[in-house]
Design goal:
Layout lengths: L15 H21 L4 H19 L4 H24 L3 E3 L8 H17 L1 H4 L2 H22 L6 H16 L3 H20 L3 E3 L18 H24 L5
Antiparallel strand pairs: 1-2
Length: 245
């Protein structure tokens, strides 16, 4: 447990670019979700173009490895969107299907988790942050199980247990902790504005779930884990290619 946590013997210096990046992504996600709640489908195309352009600009200062991670995250998460939403019907977007801006949005979500995870704010206070996340998630899960007057959230409680296991025993706890904040915010804003909603019964497990599930960050952690695992292999393949003039 906690073997992959950063060492607390050295204090990491703050890099303002990490915080600028996170604030910019939160602002972009908020604007898209709030404005698209009552907009037409055609507006989603405009937001998609804006999202891709913004993501390209944000990635200019990142390493090739991070860029590949974002690419893998986009591909895996988009495929998951069509499977979980369109095919399984676990959650439904207000216009049906998957909005055009979603792929770029997933890239921003992953990049913000990376930026938060590597920031000095989380690196230097990782154990306190873990306690905060565990307390917030536990209260949310218990509320979903007992106090929610809309949907009993059994699925969310189970997902949060899985999320905690990933944080305590996973190889990339800092990314997962960062993902908790950005994905929880994303899901709360998205569902409260009506851009999407989670159905009462999870079609995969048959268990009741909240809107959104309290442990929804576990789904995003799966995306993060896949991106982190596959991207180094892609980077190795790229470096092995012979240089051509």
């Amino acid at each position: 447990m906690l073997r992959y946590y950063p060492s607390q013997s050295q204090v990491k210096a703050h890099d303002p670019s990490d915080y600028y990046l996170v604030v910019c992504i939160f602002y972009c996600l908020t604007c898209v979700l709030v404005s698209s709640a009552n907009s037409l489908v055609n507006v989603e195309i405009i937001w998609a173009v804006f999202g891709w352009l913004s993501l390209v600009i944000m990635l200019r200062g990142e390493t090739l490895l991070v860029r590949l991670q974002v690419l893998v995250a986009i591909m895996f998460a988009t495929a998951g969107e069509y499977y979980a939403s369109v095919y399984m019907g676990g959650y439904i977007y207000h216009h049906g299907g998957v909005p055009a801006y979603v792929p770029a949005g997933h890239g921003m979500v992953y990049l913000s988790a990376i930026a938060l995870g590597r920031s000095a704010l989380l690196q230097n206070n990782v154990r306190a942050v873990t306690v905060i996340v565990a307390v917030i998630g536990s209260i949310w899960s218990l509320w979903g199980l007992s106090a929610s007057d809309q949907q009993t959230d059994v699925t969310g409680a189970l997902l949060f247990c899985i999320f905690l296991l990933c944080v305590f025993y996973g190889r990339n706890p800092m990314v997962y902790l960062g993902a908790f904040f950005v994905t929880s915010y994303l899901e709360i804003v998205g569902t409260s504005t009506g851009v999407w909603y989670w159905v009462v019964i999870d079609p995969a497990s048959g268990l009741p779930q909240g809107n959104p599930p309290s442990g929804v960050a576990a789904y995003y952690v799966m995306v993060d884990a896949v991106a982190i695992a596959i991207a180094p292999k892609l980077l190795k393949l790229i470096k092995q290619r012979p240089t051509r003039l």
